[in-house]
Write a structure and sequence with these properties.
340 residues, alpha/beta, Translation Initiation Factor IF3, UDP-n-acetylglucosamine1-carboxyvinyl-transferase, Chain, four-stranded mixed beta sheet, 8 helices, 16 strands
């Protein structure tokens, strides 16, 4: 049985989710200890427990330690089964992270699947729905599966209550993916989303983006949506010849709309100036599917500590090597390869 120290490296919930994903794919048992030991609320929280239960259901697994606050978990998977599933986090915890936990096994499974996921869809500490829909899923589909996602209802922190639907047509195996050039930037689209908040917040955010990113008015959009509680997210889609990258900024209590937009604009400018195809967060998300595929590469910023921790978990389950090669002062080429 594989034994994992859940406190090593970045020490967060991603260690657990990656282990669950790869356990389902490889059918290897694992035991993880010291789960999120260094966090303010250590152990399993609602979104982590939902990911465990979702993985256990899909993988017909035997589980020990699946309880709120538990810092130890044993996971013994069976065969991952395609089907129709519904999972609810029950809080504003991320539904998109639950999806990413079970998707790898289902997208190389034996049949089609349909998921209904409820919880947080727009959470500042997790990939928001638009990142999944516009950036992550299209790249996954290039590797062979056909994954479709639909947002039924926004779920912001702290109220939650979001809902998304996913359909998955699997591929027998994943093809390698190489993203070495971004290509010409075709357009930039900005959307300020507000729920149960004054519309002037969105207007002020877009005014800053228009100025800082030198955009025309037709690139700016306001979306007033229904949700269980108040929420604000600023979404910038950078569409280039080879892909779409998505950047988000979340409104916070006590933080001016201009500050939220300024931070987001800074992230977008950094990406554009570096001339990389893959942003920092997408780089982290692509490592697992590339490892499962047995190979692939992309150019991005130097890998974060979060990503490097993820790499170590990947190597625990799969015969894979991940190396980085400098491309410029700001960028590296990340290469994932199977090893004998």
């Amino acid at each position: 049985m594989i034994v994992i120290d859940g406190s090593f490296g970045e020490g967060g919930g991603q260690i657990l989710r990656t282990a669950l994903s790869l356990s389902l794919v490889t059918r290897q048992e694992f035991r993880i200890e010291k789960i999120r030991a260094g966090r303010q609320k250590p152990g399993l929280q609602h979104q982590h427990l939902t990911a465990v239960n979702a993985a256990a259901t899909v993988g017909q697994a035997e589980v020990e330690g699946a309880a709120i606050g538990s810092q130890m978990l044993v996971f013994r998977p069976g065969a991952a089964a395609a089907g129709e599933y519904a999972f609810s986090v029950g809080t504003a915890g991320s539904a998109t992270l639950v999806l990413q936990t079970i998707l790898p096994a289902l997208m190389i499974g034996a049949g089609s699947s349909a998921l209904v996921l409820e919880g947080g869809t727009h959470n500042p500490l997790a990939p928001p729905f638009e990142f999944i829909a516009k950036s992550y899923v299209p790249l996954i589909n290039r590797m062979g599966p056909t994954v479709k996602v639909k947002l039924d209802r926004h779920g912001f922190y702290p109220a939650g209550g979001g809902k998304m639907r996913v359909t998955i047509q699997p591929a027998p195996r994943l093809s390698r993916l190489d993203l070495l050039e971004r290509g010409r930037v075709c357009k930039c689209r900005c959307t300020a989303v507000v729920a149960n908040l004054p519309g002037h917040i969105a207007e002020r955010e877009l005014k800053v983006l228009k100025r800082e990113l030198h955009l025309h008015s037709d690139a700016l959009h306001i979306a007033e949506v229904k949700a269980h509680g108040p929420g604000n997210v600023l979404i910038v889609e950078v569409e280039s010849a080879n892909m779409i990258e998505v950047f988000t900024g979340f409104g916070e209590l006590g933080v001016r709309a201009e500050v939220v937009a300024g931070r987001t604009a800074k992230d977008v400018r950094r990406y554009l100036e570096a001339n990389v195809p893959v942003g920092e967060h997408l780089a982290d998300q692509l490592l697992l599917p590339l490892a499962v595929a047995g190979g692939g590469s992309f150019v991005s910023f130097p890998l974060s500590s979060h990503a490097m921790t993820n790499v170590e978990v990947l190597k625990t389950f799969l015969p894979v090597e991940v190396r980085t090669e400098p491309v410029s002062d700001q960028a590296v080429r990340v290469v994932a390869e199977r090893v004998a």
